[in-house]
Specification:
Layout: H1 9-36, H2 41-59, H3 63-68, H4 71-81, H5 85-101, H6 105-126, H7 131-147
Length: about 150
């Protein structure tokens, strides 16, 4: 005899949220891995476009729009997205990788500045800073200083 378990609406919502969180995590991890493996400009442009498309299609996250925002609006957009710590960390990884692999100094600077702004947002929202974050902050600040 099969046991039928009925889930409450709250449990169903929790399961849906859990599935969405898992999906977001997988998408961001896959994109970060792709970006870190880039070896040339043509590959960068292709993967950069794929990254933007994947974020838009799978997560309704417009990378190009976010990159075009000034700092105040960028922070407001991050607040509105309500991304958790893991997703903010992945976004920082993606922006940092894009900055490292980008073709032009202007693009490199923009990606690194957005990665640093995202790191600031993460630290502010969690009220903590880890060793890895401190190291990343130093790397980003050096890159930005070098490019400006």
């Amino acid at each position: 005899m099969a046991l039928l378990i009925l889930k409450s609406p709250l449990m169903q919502q929790r399961d849906i949220l859990k599935d969405e969180i898992e999906k977001i995590s997988k998408v961001l991890a896959r994109l970060a891995a792709k970006l870190l493996g880039i070896e040339d400009d043509i590959q960068f442009n292709t993967i950069r476009q794929q990254t933007a498309s994947t974020l838009k299609d799978e997560l309704d996250f417009d990378l190009d729009e976010l990159l075009s925002l000034n700092d105040v609006r960028y922070m407001a957009a991050l607040q509105q997205l309500q991304l958790g710590t893991t997703y903010l960390e992945r976004l920082i990884e993606i922006l940092h990788a894009l900055g490292q692999k980008s073709n032009t100094s202007i693009d490199k600077l923009n990606y690194h500045k957005k990665a640093l702004a995202t790191l600031n947002f993460l630290e502010h929202s969690t009220q903590s800073t880890g060793f890895v974050q401190l190291q990343l902050r130093g790397d980003l600040e050096r890159e930005i200083e070098h490019l400006e």
